[in-house]
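hi! just following up on the protien thing from before. the input was this:
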Amino acid sequence: MGKMKLKKINISPYMLLFLFIIFVIILGLSLYSNYISQKNATIEMMTHSSHQLSSTIRKASRNTIIGYRLFLHHYNEQLIADLRYLDYLDINNELTQKKLTEYAHQENFNGIYVLDKDGNLVLTNTDEKMPDLPADEYTDLNEGKFKKRTFDVLPTQNQREKRFTVGVHRTKGGTIIGNIPAIRVLNVKNIIYINSLLDSIANDPSIEYIALQDSHKTLHKTTDIALANYYEDPLIQKTFRTKSINYRISQYDGHKILEVLNYLKIFESTKYVIRIGLNYSPIQKIQKNALKQASLRLFILIIIGFMMIAYSISTQNVRLLQKEKDKITKEVYSLQADLRQKEKLSVIGELAAGVAHKIRNPLNAISMTIQRLGSEFKVKNDQSEYNSLLKILNKEINNIGEIITQFLQFSRPTAISRSRINMNELIENFVELYSVKAEKQSIELNFSANGKAIAHLDADKIKQCLINLIENAMDAMEGSGTINIDLKKKEKEAVLIVEDTGPGINDKNLSKIFNLYFTTKPEGTGIGLAQVYRIIAEHDGRIEADSPPGKGAIFRIYLPLGEK
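and the predicted 3d structure came back as:
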């Protein structure tokens, strides 16, 4: 690792003067920027106040609308209760033309219509023809599928008046329909609705006007001002589209105003833009004060700026040296850790190879002896149990043999055979084949890539790394979860990230997981992750493990890109 040469910076008086002038210019621009920022901050403050005002209007409007709806609900229930009383009289054969007319007058009904199941008029108190009812809703009420129904506001035959209409199912068969003039309901709505609220808020002297618009028209405005509609005003369109606050400075009645447009959603079906015109004079006052302060601070900032330039030059070398020192220290620590891990794996691998050789010959002799016991010797009693015990012995000896084979493979790995590999295709093919096994365990296996990664790798060994990582993840999730494989390009490296939704890795085990024979699984050998570490190191790469709280395990593999 080469040493970085640091040069001491020497500045001539002319260069210092030039830097001083540049700094003064920068400070002037900075002050101007500060002036603009204060202006914008003031506008933002007024915009925020408008937003709070809009929120207040939204909450108040919501409450008024809810109040209107509650009124409408109780009024509707009262009308239905009146009709049910008539049904009670009808059941007892006490409902007559006279009683119906008196009751309608008493309860302020415009018209009451008693119909049989065929829709024929039995009794009524008026000569006015019953409004046309929606066919499906009337049929459901007539057949008794619904015991009551609100038909809302319906036009009469002459179209000049509208009726608020309700109905109940007639116990004798048919319906009882009643209506009142819709103007009664609409009058209440106008009294408590949003228009009066906006008019009262607009009395504030800092507010020039308030207007409420939807995508079709202006619903209400507190002054006689000409306003562009949705299709004529791009800012209104933007406010509806982005559902955000927008503002502009415009003219109103011969002076400047700040107009704030805010998206207003009272209910899902009620969406508006509320336009609030604010008096601009507070902003102009703040701008003048900011300009005075900027002029006063300019001289002070010039002196401070000169001192800061001198200080910055004197400390530049120190900062650069500290940065390089930190970088070198980090690299040294990383190399030391990798070297210790490789030495550890090498020593343990050689030891495993020696032990495996010593065990294999006696193990073969035991296996042959058990085979002879099964073929040459017969027991007098419980032959089936004897055979079962021999099978168990054979199975366990085979398991030991497989473990010994893995030890030998780890201690004497085959040389890597590099070739030009498209990592995207390699991982896609692996995921496609391994997804079948994952689906059988209710595990979702996903792959995503950011760009095409070409590297000079041993495809079989990289697949072995993926198999070991995926198998560990599937064992950790115990039957269900998600495994995400992500491939990214980072400068001259390919970064392969394998992340699962399992329980994660304990902090005290995180530094040990790449050690040979370290495992937390009851039947694990502790070879898989050590093998992954060795293969990645053989490819001049590195692997890191992480397990954030509340998440599963994350493995990051860094492999060099290119042909070599």
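The CA atoms of residues 536 and 542 lie 6 Å apart.
The mean pLDDT is 78.
cheers
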